[in-house]
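Most newcomers find our protein records easier to grasp once they have seen one. To make this concrete, we reproduce a full record directly below:

===
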Amino acid sequence: MSDLRFGVEQEMQLKMKPELELWSALTPAEQRVLGVLFHKYVGQWFSSLLPSDVWAKEGLSGAEAKLAFATLQNKQWINSAYRSWGERSYYIPEYHLATLTVAYKGRVGCKVEPMISSVRRVMKEGKPHIAGELLHLLAWIRREGLPITAKGTIHKRNIQKLSTLTILSHADFEQLEMTYDHMNLYSVDLVILLDLLLSLNLIEKTNEGFQIRKNRLQQWIKLPWSIMHREIFRVCMNRYGASSAEQQHFRYQLALFTSGINTWCRIRNGEGDERIESWLHALAGWGFGEVGEIGDDENRELAYRWLVDPVELLNLGSDCVDKPDEKRSGGIYVQPDFEVMVPPNVSPEICWTLENYSERITRDQMSIYRLTKERIEKAIANGVKGEVIANFLEAHGQGDVPEHVLAVLRDWARESENMLNNNSSLPPFLLDHSDIQDISKEMEMSSPWFYDPEVSGFIQVPQLMQGMKSEEQDESNVVHHHEKTAWNKRKLNVPETWHREWRMYHLSTARQIAVQAIEWQVKLGIKKGDTTFVLIPHQVEGHEHWTLEGWCVLDSDELSSLTEWRTFELENDDSVRLILPDDV
């Protein structure tokens, strides 16, 4: 292992230390069961425990696996929910997936490697971050509204207008091959933007159209960019990437096994994997990173570098704590021609306010807005005082705001305030007073989390399984208790010596014990002289002269076990014993 890769892994383990310590406290059986399920399903739903032969290859009996599965539910490493028709399904909670990606890297294998060298070329540059685009779209919906037709679709004229508002493009996401309703009407970039707003609970769809959820919006604009990025990234991870386990593993590895921002990492076997490449291109479209390539034309491989710290995206740092540079928000530059230059470190709240006083001209690392009479009139109609607008520019401007700009703004504000005294002469688009309300009580009642996986957005996500009812923790405790109670009853039906001690039995009795081990799906211990074998029995062949087939456990460690298929023929002087799970 290279020093760079070792350093990356050590740093990541340090950041995840508390969670990894909880994982380390699991029993070897629990770790192996969790490892198999994580490898196969990641965050997908599954309906039942895997067959006994899968666990036998892991060195676990079916009974050990079943009991470990129950304790993992009790410890909330595995959750369950019921479908509307009563079927129960299971899943590993999202908040454990980053930890398990680190813990089971050796089991899963890794496609991501940090690299020191640069790339041959940048295939796709990262766009300005998606959080700013969402603010821009929200401001437009707040001003103009977004009604729907009788068929429940957006009017074509509004679709055309929306397509001109954003720097995103169809090319950013076309490789994702997403399916959604009205694909002939909506472009994929527009669908993702609206689906993000719905999933973040910032807008809702009503019979009249898409409407701003004002209480949520007021909370959203007060967040730092880093927490906005985190919430948006969660939606992107869960809704827009391919849902296969392999692709989920890759997405988490990409966030965890790179050496921070602005450093290229190599994607092993990435060339030719269209799903991996489509995800990288989408990340660049959202402004999270950039895509490159290394090697020559014959040995081309993909590379990627983050432009936003992935530790923040997965919330592995201090929760909900502003970064020092975010607390010291940058200022804006008001120009003599009424243009306003906005650096990237300006806070979301300042950007939001500026969206309501001006029109966006360009968006890049340095975005440009223009103060306009129409926007000032709209702000005044919504209850903003002219002096508030001037004070805002002076408070957040770098340097002095040009005097003639302030004078013109005050004139526009005065004209608008005079128009308010005579509503009959006020243009219809200025009569919307819907934002003049006290929403503080609503804000106090709102949840601090924005992303809701169960929201029905533009895009249907199969793995979210609508109509699911989560199981209460108390019920998980009942499942675990039931397993132990069932074992107490089972043990009453056989002689205690069968599982308490090693003994030699008549071959017919030894056969009964072997059959019992198969029925209970437990291990069987066999002593031949000084050698002890631990067997996970599969079947008994014959009666008077019989043989036993199964997996022999050759070596075992915490994460995996070495087993071998063998056939045993017992003799009269062999000792046998049922080996029950440790917890029973």
User: Anything to note?
Assistant: DSSP finds 25 helices and 21 strands in the chain. The longest helix spans residues 473-491.
